[in-house]
Amino acid sequence: MSPDLNPEAEFAYGAGQINPIKAAYPGLVYDADELDYINFLCEQGYSTKLVKIIAGGNSNCPAKKGIDGKTFDLNYPAFVLPVSPSESINHVFHRTVTNVGSPNSIYKAKVISQKGLRITVDPSVLTFKSLWEKLSYAVTVQGMIDHKFMISTSLVWDDGTFQVRSPIVVYVPS
């Protein structure tokens, strides 16, 4: 996607699978449970009252809030970071994936870099020994976006059979 032709870039279609046939065999999945989403809503500024309406039951917002009311570590395939113009960026995202592909598989991280950003993945190789095994990794985004609304790139985990793409978006909120 070209930012010149599509300034909305990744926001135009989201983080989901585009090919419905491949969606049935994802290789890796990002697990998130009800509590993860409740915390996400709370850190986005929703009150306990609103969260109870949405989630029902005895859902409560924890006292601790995220950075500026935003949460970055919802275990979700997308990495989204709002920044101020010309702000120096140094942010780490944490994720955990579950292997639902091949029992013995080795996924290698591939990042398509964009000018102005340095993106690293640690570890850059995930070695699974069984199905349903969970492994964690971190994505570090460093750099600066000058005179742009958004920089969009991606991380792809590839084991030779499955390719699991996660969009990485750094943007200046309007």
Structure notes:
The chain is mainly beta. It has helices at residues 20-23, 34-43, 48-55, and strands at 28-29, 79-82, 89-99, 105-112, 117-122, 125-128, 134-143, 150-158, 163-171. It has a five-stranded mixed beta sheet, with no helix packed on it. Strands 1-3-7-5 form a four-stranded antiparallel beta sheet, with no helix packed on it. A hairpin with a 4-residue loop joins strand 8 and strand 9. The model has no long low-confidence stretch (mean pLDDT 84).
The total strand number stands at 9
Enumerate the strands of the largest sheet in spatial order, edge to edge or round the barrel.
2-9-8-4-6
Distance between the termini: 21 Å
Report the C-alpha radius of gyration, rounded. 17 Å
Q: Order of SSEs, N→C? A: HEHHEEEEEEEE
**What portion of the residues fall into strands of 2 or more residues?**
35-45%
Poorly predicted tracts of residues: none
Mean pLDDT: 84
Helix/strand-derived category reads mainly beta
Helix and strand topology:
Layout: H1 20-23, E1 28-29, H2 34-43, H3 48-55, E2 79-82, E3 89-99, E4 105-112, E5 117-122, E6 125-128, E7 134-143, E8 150-158, E9 163-171
Parallel strand pairs: 2-9
Antiparallel strand pairs: 1-3, 3-7, 4-6, 4-8, 5-7, 8-9
